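lol ok so funny story. i was supposed to be doing the assay writeup but got distracted and ended up predicting the structure for this chain instead. priorities right. anyway since i did it might as well share w the group, maybe its usefull for someone
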Amino acid sequence: KDIILNHYYFSDFVVFDKIILELKACIFLDESHEKQLLNYLAISKLRLGLLVNFGSDSLQYKRIVL
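and the output, tada:
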């Protein structure tokens, strides 16, 4: 706490200044993708995120609320 890191995080899209949309193109979504979105939500102080994967045979998505 109270230590500022010199790192920048860029989400794929921020929709209506309320929703973080994180796009992936991988075979399956795993826990690391969810953790990444949770970090983006915590940093941005937003509450809703959508994790969307276009890389599998059918569209996969997960709604994450902080």
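Residues 31-44 form the longest helix (14 residues). The chain has one helix and four strands.
back to the writeup now i swear
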